# Entry
Amino acid sequence: MIALLAAAATSPTPQALLTKLLQTPVARAELPPGYSKPKVARQPLTANGKRYHAVGQVVVLLAGPNQEDAFAWEVFQTHKDALADLHHPALTNGTRLAGTVAGVKDGVLLRGQLNGLELADAVTVVDNVLVQAVTAAPSGNPAAAIALLKTAIAHLKKVAGG
# Structure
């Protein structure tokens, strides 16, 4: 019980975590080989995020091997809210569930199309945060989306202090 109370006392509030994610740069050394120039920005919430009580979203745009490379954190009030968003996605652009992400708890891989490119979208939930990584390339690049998802998870854990 004491350990749980200590953990709760050191965990940032959802709003504080959102602020820390916005203010903590992603170091180039944190990125997989071939990626650079991380640009961190606040992103507007989607209708689905609002539906499940998200407090905000932070996106990191990258220069990389694909036409589009990015990852994002959508911070929710609770773990339950984040899981609800994960389990009830608003799929657009012909996006479909393509599988799971090996080695990532609750990790799912989505595939779809946008502007003639094949999207690969790897998504999971860590605590009260929906973590997502997207790549867009002519043939798709799910391996890159998964590598970026793991990068986003590692940075989140660093920022959250655990």
Observations:
- DSSP finds five helices and seven strands in the chain.
